[in-house]
Design a protein that fits this description.
Layout (H helix, E strand, L loop, with lengths): L1 E2 L9 E5 L14 E9 L7 E7 L6 E2 L6 E2 L6 E7 L15 E8 L7 H7 L4 H11 L1 E6 L8 E8 L2 E6 L2 E6 L10 E7 L1 E5 L5 E5 L5 E11 L2
Antiparallel strand pairs: 1-16, 2-13, 3-10, 3-16, 4-7, 4-13, 5-6, 7-8, 8-9, 10-11, 11-12, 14-15
Helix pairs in contact: 1-2
């Protein structure tokens, strides 16, 4: 999987998934073990890449042109995730927000705090972020892995546990696990985009200049429990 060299004006991405033509309530998985071997071109690629499961929370489709109807949602995800320094992908003050992570998010379909969070957004993004941090369960750990070399990765997702292995060594385990009442889809990707919602309340997103970059994957095994 690769992206071509390019400027900071255009999005470039490559993705494998099993959900893109499905509405969110029909995503395939409610528990899963995913294993694969992978290596990346560099340990400091602009943008993001990774592999795991999510609910495509930022997807927006009104159902035209044969696409499924899908509105934005709160994140549910469990994945190995790389984010370049322009990203800040954490809603708490004590979790890593960039680099190579094992990361999991758990969100409800709705929470009463979402109402004041939305009302506060035009006036104080910092307040909105703090409220979202109370709604969205999150856990993660930074990983010290040479991603430019082949490694075996495995993650297990169940209703009460998320667990991550690298080369058959357990590197992270958490009771924070995506909400199994809402199914997830497998995603493996590399792109040149960034998104940040910092503790100071700054929101930024866009695309980055990049050299040609690759994420090589093999031996993908998906096992539903």
């Amino acid at each position: 999987m690769g992206i071509q060299k390019g400027d900071s004006l255009h999005y470039r991405g490559s993705q494998l998934d099993d959900y893109s033509q499905l509405p969110r309530h029909r995503f395939p998985h409610r528990s899963l073990t995913l294993s694969l071997r992978a290596k990346a071109t560099s340990s400091s690629l602009p943008g993001t890449w990774g592999f795991g499961l999510w609910n495509d929370p930022f997807g927006l489709s009104l159902g035209f042109g044969g696409n499924p109807f899908r509105l934005p949602a709160l994140p549910n995800a469990v994945w190995f995730f790389y984010a370049s320094p322009q990203n800040y992908l954490s809603f708490t003050g004590d979790k890593p927000a960039q680099g190579f992570l094992a990361q999991t998010f758990r969100s409800p379909i709705f929470h009463p705090l979402l109402i004041p969070a939305g009302l506060a957004l035009p006036f104080s993004r910092k307040v909105t972020r703090n409220l979202l941090g109370k709604v969205i369960g999150e856990d993660s750990v930074a990983l010290s892995v040479d991603v430019t070399q082949w490694h075996e990765y495995r993650l297990e997702w169940s209703a009460k546990r998320s667990a991550f292995w690298v080369d058959d060594v357990l590197v992270f385990e958490s009771p924070v696990s995506p909400n199994a009442s809402r199914p997830l889809g497998v995603v493996i990707w590399i792109d040149n985009q960034f998104a940040a919602f910092t503790p100071e309340g700054k929101i930024s997103f866009g695309v980055l200049k990049n050299d040609e970059a690759w994420l090589d994957v093999e031996n993908i095994v998906v096992s539903n429990k």
